[in-house]
Amino acid sequence: MYRARVFLRQLEPRTARTTSEVLSFALWPFAILTVLNRVFIKAVNGFITDDFRPVYNASLAFLNHHAIYGENYDTTDPHYLYPPSGTLLISPLAILDPEKSRWGFILVNAIAILLAWYLLLKLFDYTLKSVAAPALLLAMFASETVTNTLVFTNINGCLFLSMMVFIHLILKRKDLWAGVALGLAIAVKGPLLAPLLLIPLVRGQWKVFITALGIPVALNLIAWPLIVDFKQFWSHTLPYLTESRDYFNSAIVGNGAYYGVADWLVWTIRITMAVIVALTLWLLYRYYRDDEVFFVCTSAGIMITATLLLGSLGQMYYSMYLFPLLMTVVLPNSVMRNWPAWVAVFGFMSYDKWLSDRWQHPGRVVEYLRTTFGWGLLLIVAFCVLGDRYLAAKREGRLQVGKSLDPAWMHPERDTTEPEPVLAPRTKATASY
């Protein structure tokens, strides 16, 4: 009873005394009501795009020992593209009827996103009482990536939680468990989060690979005998996954195909951006690997952005995996502390639509290209910020392997310059004559 009274007292209306309290009081209602709207209104209402239906049908076919991988990929409808390991993991969906199963899947993903939100706060040493808590929650659920993950009923929320668990565990050096978190994600959507394995590779955390690779392999070995047409995945589905399509594809190659851009120009852009990514990751590894949270979150964001932009398929709602990179803005040396970075974020995070009845062609171009340009601009900004710090450090003679490129003003608390000794004034007792 006493605890209930204490809890209710927290909800008692009171006047804010500080700017932080004002912001918290203003943001929490917006954040909570936005979450409720996205989960129980927009998601339940659904949309013409339905990622859940093919997943449910595949789960039902798996449980009934029917063929799974024989789809016609010439249509633009959502297709079932999970590997056998992913099929095994999601098969319990078909235990319920389609409507209840979909509602449950929405709820599971919403809970996963909320848990990932909490882990993201904790990663940067923020509590639920901080103003960062409602601000981040509102930003996440107001974004296109969370909204459409729930509306289309995709599994992105669960995979994002796996990513956040992986980051926490790898920073705590709990390598085998970190591999479990990433391995489960790879088992469902391998190519998307597999680049994160580069982080334990360069940090020398070899045990991560035991479980991160062992779990997908084991699950596939278990699933293959249970899937009547598992060979079709290798001969029919996998080749389709390696192809680039010209619809619902914000990768460079996808928009290049849609607008009829010459292949040589598409490859030139992709190779140029790949070089930019490689140089950015090199700077991060050489000079920031000891700044663990900054290094891991920034490197992860750069690699996933590069995967979406330079790979065969990049869809806007995959930008959910970039939240750790965006959250580094609270760090003094973040590459996100400039306005071009947030122009980029608007491109791939905003739920706004730019289709115009009055200016149809320009509106369609902006709507179709804003995600591609947003991802590209983010990579360019990160490279330019780190490159500028490198050149400045070189001019000032501060280049040391393993030492940060940050100028002293970014970290005043680390200033180790010894102050000049202050001599005590002479007094009658100490004066000499």
UniProtKB/TrEMBL annotation:
Domain of life: Bacteria
Name of one Pfam family that matches: GT87
Subcellular location per the Swiss-Prot or TrEMBL entry: Cell membrane
Keywords linked to the UniProt accession: Cell membrane, Membrane, Transferase, Transmembrane, Transmembrane helix
Ranges where the record places region Disordered: 410-433
Membrane topology: Multi-pass membrane protein
Ranges that cross the membrane: 21-41, 103-120, 150-171, 177-201, 208-227, 264-285, 292-310, 368-386
Name of the protein in its database record: DUF2029 domain-containing protein
Source organism of the structure: Nocardia tengchongensis
Lineage: Bacteria, Bacillati, Actinomycetota, Actinomycetes, Mycobacteriales
